[in-house]
Amino acid sequence: MSIPNKHYGELKDSYLFFNIAQKVKKYQAEHPDKKMYRLGIGDVSLPLCDAVIKALHQGVDDQANKDSFHGYMPECGAPFLREKIAEYYNKRGVDITAEEAFVSSGASDELGDIIDMFDRNTSVLIMEPAYPAYVDANVMAGKKIYHLPTGRDEGFLPTPKSAEKEGIKADVIYICSPNNPTGAVYTKEGLKDWVDYANANGSVILFDAAYEAFIEDPSLPKSIFEIEGARTCAIEICSLSKTAGFTGTRLGYTVIPKTLERDGMNFNAMWVRNRTTKTNGVSYIIQRGGAAVFTDEGQKQIHENINIYKNNAKVIMQALDEVGIWYCGGKNAPYVWMKCPNGMGSWEFFDYLLENIQVIGTPGEGFGKCGEGYFRFSSFGSPEDTKEAAERIKNLLKK
Ligand code: PLP
Asked: Mean pLDDT in runs of 10 for the chain (399 residues)?
């Protein structure tokens, strides 16, 4: 018996962003005159849109008056926001009710907390390369983790057959689409295979839709609930971070259908019980700001920002096209995932870009072993820096 949770001792050092920061710091100290071009960040660079700012100000004013003041908010979210979220789904023909939409402080918080609802002995399947928090949160919880590596031959979109081939049968399946880091997006058919597989095996899918707003191809699913059968096997975790610039403001939502049950227990009811015990709700002011995202004006404005990022992605893709480098993502996602040229390793390519053209990206190896030999560019930087970085990449790789 150990008093601390001994699983924390099994966590690998999260060296990815630390290593990047150290390398950049060292280079900058040695070359103080050089400007850096940062295409590695996963944070947004544009401010909140006007509709959100107005609503936040209104929220502050409401708190200043006795008649409009709000104390504790409902633990599962303010009804005005839960209704807006449900409406957002309903407008797309997806049948979700306000009671199935839970307001959160962001997807990261939720991805960690949601594990609480699964028995200690459940196993999880994580498709790699993956957003690192999936693995770490499950290591902390002492879960059995199956890593499902994927590669270019399947477009970084593994199928249930790939899991079966590896002899994996897991209770909880993580799917991130559009994917961080690969930018790959499942088609409806691809997701249907996972939904059918989960329903047949009694597994639960945790669908991370943090980048749904970047999907522009109308045939691609933005929500797993667009897929028939998902209401009996999936939970969807969403975030306003990249959708609406809420990385520092903090707001997300989680959809748990009332029809999701396993072993006689209902996940929606369990989550109500969890939230009413473990949170006292999200700030009224922030929820007011969040509700503005779902208005017509808010949607128009957030998509103006998303289009700026999407244009950055286009600039990066054009540069890679010109030098004939393989990549995926970028079109329906804010990330471009490229094959490192000339058989270079991820970190080798990182150093090569830093030293020669001062462009900073993210080595694919940091997202799982099978990411070795790949590299991620983010489109969240400024258009000016992205343009200059793309020009530099083109000139360097043309040689
Ligand atoms: N899920 C994915 C795939 C992400 O890339 C991120 C952030 O980069 C998150 C979740 C976390 O989002 P939030 O800011 O809402 O915690």
From this structure: 93 84 95 94 93 98 98 98 98 97 96 96 97 93 96 96 95 98 98 98 98 97 98 98 98 98 98 97 98 98 98 98 97 98 97 97 95 98 96 93
**How crowded is residue 271: how many other Cβ atoms within 10 Å of its Cβ?**
22
DSSP string, 163-229: HHHTT---SEEEEESS-TTT-----HHHHHHHHHHHHHHT-EEEEE-TTGGG---TTS-SSGGGSTT
* C-beta of 340 in contact with ligand 1 (< 6 A): no
Is the Cβ atom of 180 under 6 angstroms away from ligand 1? yes
- The alpha carbon of 222 and the centre of ligand 1 are apart by a number of angstroms equal to 16
Residue with CA nearest ligand 1 atom 3: 180
Contacts for 3 with CB less than 8 Å, ≥ 6 apart: none
Q: What is the pTM of this model?
A: 0.97
Measured distance CA(399)–CA(10) in Å, rounded: 44
Distance CA 320, CA 288 (A): 41
Q: State if residue 358 touches ligand 1 by the CB under 6 angstroms criterion.
A: no
Ligand 1 midpoint to CA 237 (Å) = 9
